[in-house]
Amino acid sequence: MVVISALLIGLVFGAGIALSGMANPAKVLNFFDLAGSWDPSLIFVMGGALAVTFAGYRLVLKRPGPLLGGRFHLPARRDIDPGLVLGSAVFGVGWGISGFCPGGVIPALGLMRFEPVVFVAAMVTGILLARILKRQDLSAAPGRQGV
What is the reported pTM? Predict the structure, then answer.
């Protein structure tokens, strides 16, 4: 049941990304082109996502646990560390250069174009590289073992 619900949620998310045009990198890049052909529609997509997320968290977190899982998996840390800042910067630069974000590129893979495949390959490479660097950092720290 968990896999089926994840599939349905993914399909709804992908349909929303596709219908809003956010799987099209040109539309996203036009949002960042303030001096040229600026397209403000991404603001409305983000605003809608924020509103749904805000309401959803308020409703769902009143429950003792998720319907299809044992417990909620929420972040324990609230501090802003260098890894968060660096990761956010890399995400923003990658989004601004390519027009893809991780959520929008998955539905774009269905367009059978080369660019989303290159982006996903770069994203996976970056994830693996970050894991390797994190393991090295943890293993180098005194008194800590690698993950």
Answer: 0.70
Whole-number Å distance between alpha carbons of 134 and 119: 22
Q: What is the DSSP letter of 24?
A: -
pLDDT band at residue 51 under the 50/70/90 scheme: very high
Rounded CA-CA distance 85/68 in Å is 33
* Helix ranges restricted to H, the chain: 2-20, 25-32, 41-60, 82-98, 102-109, 114-140
For residue range 20-38, list pLDDT tens digits in order: 888 888 888 898 888 888 9
Four-CA torsion 41, 44, 46, 48, nearest 10 degrees: -150
Q: Cα(51)–Cα(92) distance, rounded to whole angstroms? A: 22
> Is residue 114 assigned to a domain?
yes
Residue 72 belongs to what domain range?
2-140
Q: Mind listing the pLDDT tens digit for each residue in 93-107?
A: 888 888 888 888 888
Q: Is residue 23 part of a domain?
A: yes
Please check whether residue 21 lies inside any domain of the structure.
yes
Torsion of CA 30, 32, 34, 40, to 10 degrees: 60
* Beta carbons within 8 Å of 144's beta carbon, 6+ residues apart: 138
